[in-house]
Amino acid sequence: MNNPKIKIIFAGTGNFSSKIFESFINNTDFEITALISQPNKAMDRNKKFIETPVAQLAKKHNIKLFQPTKIKEIYEELLNLDFDYFITAAFGQFIPNSIIKLAKKAALNVHGSLLEKYRGAAPIQHALLNNDKETGISLIYMIDKMDAGNVLFSAKCSIESNDTALEIYDKLAQLTIDNLPNWLKEIYINPKEGYIQKEELVTFASKINNEDCELFYSDTKQFALNKIRAFNDQPGAFIIHNNKRLKIFRASIDRISTPLSIEFSDGKLYLIEYQIEGKQKVKIM
């Protein structure tokens, strides 16, 4: 006799979420009951809204899609759906208890750090800001306190010296794709309480603001490089250079052949990918 499919509602918004969710679509052990995304906010040149990657995924595969401004708005719709797990991955909204309680088995969150380290909105960016050498994912129970639930599973990956947020997002998405199906099948058959997080070990990764991304000539070159790596994806590290905003997406401490380098307090950074205000992006290698 075949085992029943594990039914999931996924909530996420960007490319990180979309890659993970798509990996489940052709997995015969699972059924995606619905996808939830933040509303479409980005606009194209014609001032038309661009669908989020998760919204695009739902339409591509004809999966029921919700895009509430606040998730509590769709409580009644979710109440009428059949699902075992409610799983979030970089969704961007706090999930209230009323929604958490709807899943027959559990509400779970895929978090982009090795908890207890880096609870909060920007764990990948903070790992790079601190020049960490490893990171990972944690699968946790959702409770009514952000990223504070028991940790069920975790998996690690290394952070290489040239990794930016883009590379780490890809690494953590693949780590989730490789592990999450087996983790879910394991706890579906044998539920577990997980590891209680120790509050004295908790650190926080607060949301990144645009002003956090500015570089200064008084910075050390390593500190500047950490910022460049952390904010490569968005919103982008920048410095005011020759009275213009210079966005820097990639740089090197090691000397390379490049048209532009910036002198910081203890030496130069050699720019690999950058954009001077009002000009096209330059990519050296």
UniProtKB/TrEMBL annotation:
Keywords of this protein's UniProt record, alphabetized?
Protein biosynthesis, Transferase
Q: Which Gene3D superfamilies match?
A: 3.40.50.12230
Source species, domain of life: Bacteria
Q: Report TM segments.
A: none
List its EC numbers. 2.1.2.9
Tell me the InterPro entries matching this sequence.
Fmt, Formyl_trans_C, Formyl_transf_N, Formyl_transf_N_sf, Formyl_transferase-like_C_sf, GART_AS, Met-tRNA-FMT_N
Q: Name one Pfam family in it.
A: Formyl_trans_C
GO MF annotation terms: methionyl-tRNA formyltransferase activity
Family annotation (PANTHER family): METHIONYL-TRNA FORMYLTRANSFERASE, METHIONYL-TRNA FORMYLTRANSFERASE, MITOCHONDRIAL
> Would you identify the family this protein belongs to, as annotated?
Belongs to the Fmt family.
Annotated protein name in UniProt: methionyl-tRNA formyltransferase
Which gene underlies this protein? fmt
